Each structure stands twice: as C-alpha cells, then as structure tokens.
Give the backbone structure.
Amino acid sequence: MPTPIAIITGASSGIGAATARRLAAAGYRVVLTARRKDRIEALEAELTAAGHQATAYPLDVTDRAAVDEFATVFRNLAVLVNNAGGALGADPVATSDPDDWRQMYETNVIGTLNLTQALLPALTASGDGTVVVLSSTAGHGTYENGGGYVAAKHGAHVLAETLRLEIVGTPVRVIEVAPGMVKTEEFATTRFRGDTDKAAKVYAGVAEPLSADDVAETITWAVTRPPHVNIDLLVVRPRAQASNTKVHREL
C-alpha cells in the first residue's frame, strides 16, 4: 500500500519544519513547500538521511497558477497542513500600512484557500483526508496594535469553520489548531522587520513560551486520531499565557 502523503506549506522553518519532522516520523511521506528552495531542500536531505520519505517543492501559496500545477503532481494525498502565514507590523489601525494587511490576508487566507481548493478533490478521493488550518489565538480574540494580523487569522478561522460545515458527510476532516505565544527563530523578527530587540521583547520574562515542536506535536496528535474523530478546534498556549493580553512575565 502506498505511503500516505502529507503536504506542509511554509515548511522552510518554525512550525512548518517541525511539523514535517513529526509527520515524517509518524509514517507519512512529507511534501515540503515554501518559497525558500534552499531551506526545504536542506530539510528534505535531513529527513531522507534519517530514513524518512520527503520531497521538497518550492511554492508560493499566493500564486494560484503555481498551486494548480502543484496539485497535479501528487496522488494518494492524505493530509494538507496549511501553515504558511505570518505577521507584518505592530501598528494601530489608524496608522498601519494597508500593504501589510493585504500581504497578510493574501498569505494567511487566500494562500490557505488556494491550496485547499486545489487539493480537496484528491483529499476526498483518498477516502480519509484531513485539512489542517493553522490559525492563531489572534483569530479568536483581538488585541491592540495587531489589527491586520488579527483580521487575517480571523479569516483563516472562518474559512476552516465554514469548510467543515460545507463538506460534512464527505470523508474529509477539517482541523483548526490555534497556537498562542510560540517562540520561533523568525516569527517575531519578521513581524518587526528584522528588529531583533523588538522581537526579543515579545518573549521577555516568559519562562517557557511554546516551541515550534510543541505545536507540531499537537498537529500530529490531531491528525493521527482515528478517522471518525475530528478535532474541530484546538487552542494551545503556554501556561504563562492566559489570553492574548494576559501573560505572566518574571522580570
């Protein structure tokens, strides 16, 4: 029987790369997609050397023509992990850059829509498919100076919730995982456009924020439940974070 395939978007770093490692260890052939070809090829080599099946495929999830072409390549598809996303800026609504909002929406929402639409037929044909949407606690509660990211992640949440309603009765599950504070090598730095001091302040005094692997383990657990079990929504935060605006810091 062919090894089931799991496609992970945004697999070049952080949660995406960690999820690829976890799903590969769980027995999936992982397809690693991201824009940074060198990163996903290095991960492919790492996983292959460890005895896993992995394929790197450079892809921009906002490029619908490229996504449609990608969808013709792989068969026996079991899992799609819509992880590509990210935040840009931390400005109030009154002064934030509309281009930042547009870019976040394109990646977090339209990118997820593109991959899901293109691959849903194969997931359905598999007889046991799973769509995972990586949203955020930002998709479930607003906070100041994060309006663009909050709006985009609300969009991702609504996409997942609506899709689940629309395809009920088909052999495809829709799982949403909404992480809170996760410390990765790039997320906050990208948000603050390379300002490492601002990025460090996000996690200042927080003894144990979540790691990328914490979230990857959560995704893998949800994906590997028995086929009749759907984890609709799983919110995961570090113990030190009670909400988007309530974090315990030891300063």
Observations:
- The CA atoms of residues 126 and 217 lie 24 Å apart.
- The first strand starts at residue 5 and ends at 8.
- The chain is about 40% helix and 20% strand.
